[in-house]
Each structure stands twice: as C-alpha cells, then as structure tokens.
Predict the structure.
Amino acid sequence: MPGGQLPTTLAGFEAAFREALPEGTLAYYAGAAADEITLGRNVEAWRELLLRPRVMVDVSNRDPSVELFGRSYGLPIAVAPTAYHRLAHPDGEEATARGSVAAGCPYTLSTLATSRPTPVGEAAPDGPKWFQVYVFRDREVTRELVAEAEEAGFEALLLTVDLPVLGRRDQEVGTGFVVGQAEGVPGVHAAGGEGEISMQDTADLIDPSLTWDDVGELAGSTDLPVLVKGVLRGDDARLAIEAGAAGVVVSNHGGRQLDTVQATAEALVEVVESIGGEASVMVDGGIRRGTDVAKALILGADFVLVGRPILWGLATGGAEGVEAVLSMLADEFDRALALLGVPRASELSGRDDLIA
Ligand SMILES: Cc1cc2nc3c(=O)[nH]c(=O)nc-3n(C[C@H](O)[C@H](O)[C@H](O)COP(=O)(O)O)c2cc1C
C-alpha cells in the first residue's frame, strides 16, 4: 500500500495482503495442509473460549509486561518464524525485525529466511531477537547458522520439530510455487539447494531422523535457551525438558503439517499441566486478537507467537505494517486487561474463573 494509509483492522491488513501478492506466494503464505481443518480450528478455538470479566476493579494502572528467561518483556507477544520475507516485501526480514522491535516484540528469524542472521541483527540492534532452527541433513550448515545467530546477538533458539517431512499443502502444490533462486535463501543454498526450489525440495534438505538426543546436543552446544517448537502433548513436553530444553512452543505449524491435529488452544492445557511453572510454555496458531493473547495467558502460556498476521503487515506496509499489526494487538491486549478487571498480565495465569 505505497503512500497510502495503513488499514486500521487486522481484516483490512489481510485484504490488502491478498491484493498485493501473486497467486503462488499467496498460496504458500495463506495455505495449510490438506483440508485445512486445523488452520480453521486454531482460530475458532480461541474465539470459542468465552470470557467472564470482573468489574469494579481499579484498572487505572495497567502493566502488560511479563517475565521470561529471567528478564522482563514489555509484552507477551513475539513474532513467529516464517520463511522467505523478501517474497512479501523487498525489505525482507530486516523490515520485519525493525517493525517487531519498534512495537516492543521479540522477532524470530527463520532458518529459511531470505537474509542471514548478521544483517538482520544489525537492522534491529536494540530489541530482542530469537533464531528458529531447522536441522539440515548437513549438520555443519546448521551449526554455522546457529553460531552466526549467537554472534549477531540473538537471545534464544527455537528448534522446530514438527517438520520431519513436509505436510501436503494442496493450494501451494496447485500453483507450482517455487522460490526463484535458492541463492536468495542463504540457509537453503548452504545446505545444498540450487536454482529454483520448491518447498518440497527445501524440506528434503531437513534431517528427518531427529530425536530427543538432538535436543540435548543443541542445548549442550549453546548458552542460549533452547525451546522446542511444535509440541502438542504433555508427555512430549516433559521429554523436551528432560532433554535439556528451557521450554516448548505449543504449535501445529499454523495447520501446515499434520492436518486434523488439535487446535493449539486445546493442546496448550495438557502441556501446561505437564510442565507449566517448571519451564517456559509458548503457544502459536490462530492468535488474531488481544483477547486471544489474554486467553492464552489465562490458560498458562508465558508468551504467544503470531505468524500470518505479521506477513499481512509486511506485505502491506513493510516495517511500518509489521509495527502497526503488533501495535494493534498490543492495544487490544491492554484493553482486554482493563475490561477483564486484571490490570497486570502477570496475574492472568491460572485465573480459570475468567473463562466460562
Ligand atoms: C508462510 C509461513 C511460513 C512459515 N515458516 C516457518 C519456518 O520457517 N519455521 C517455523 O518453525 N515455522 C514456520 N511457520 C509456522 C509459524 O512459525 C507458526 O507456527 C504459525 O504460523 C502460527 O500460526 P498463525 O499463522 O495462525 O499465527 C510458517 C508459517 C507460515 C504461515
């Protein structure tokens, strides 16, 4: 939306994003696996949780900040890792990082980014950044990317474990979507991808043999906290912690991997019961409103990650679009705290009475 005003609602951003992008990119960004049952359920599950606010609570001073990894974050909202940002906007991941940090939210850079960790770190030096790890069959490439991220000031590693093979994404396959030059995706190029490359070819570079031992190996090789992203069960969450992870991200990859898995709002409860209070629990999938953020915290999440809406902001307005989307969520979250009668985000956890 060059030169124009940015939309004032998330639905407006989504509509502008759909206008802005070619069919193949749109199918890649917006689509999900198979019948997209989980894609829809993720959004619905948050919406279906009905709130029971308290009234007559003094909410004149509100505090949306939370503690994580022993430090304070201004908001419990981070940007989920998503691939190939230069396909959404020419300023790519650097713009997303700038927009996230300007809104006070950690940015997670994907292994499948169209930039390396160093320039992204330099683009947004003053805010927290996390790095998402896919373990390539060529482990040396992964080790080098992690080392570069550490050097560039990234503060946590999110190890994605729900992509041993690629979910079958019908929309994307139907359009024949490929990323123009693998060279534009440095991680993929280093791992052996050449020329025009499909998501299937990219996924084939990722090691499908990962087990909990690999979590231990990664956690043992770095001083950064390692979070296991893509956990949907309490028993797996416990194994992640026993293997050395600092926490988990309850995620079904935005419905893009195994279709008909539970919505993340549902899976969150079991994971919190298993490891909540002992290790960090984040959640992503379908978070579209400040009330969704509040509900996730009530159910025991420490932090939420937001995926597609960031791409809507990026495609529509670059760094400013990303900042606007996150600021909108932050504003809604602040209003939710006031209207729920819980002025401090840190006091939402475990308040089951707030959900009908
Ligand atoms: C276009 C797209 C690309 C993604 N790329 C990655 C990725 O590179 N690494 C990863 O761990 N997750 C990836 N994800 C999953 C997101 O991190 C996140 O789990 C999901 O988008 C959250 O759901 P939401 O989009 O409903 O907010 C991707 C998701 C989308 C939509």
Q: What stands out?
A: The chain has one domain: 10-348. The mean pLDDT is 97. The CA atoms of residues 99 and 319 lie 4 Å apart. The chain has 14 helices and ten strands.
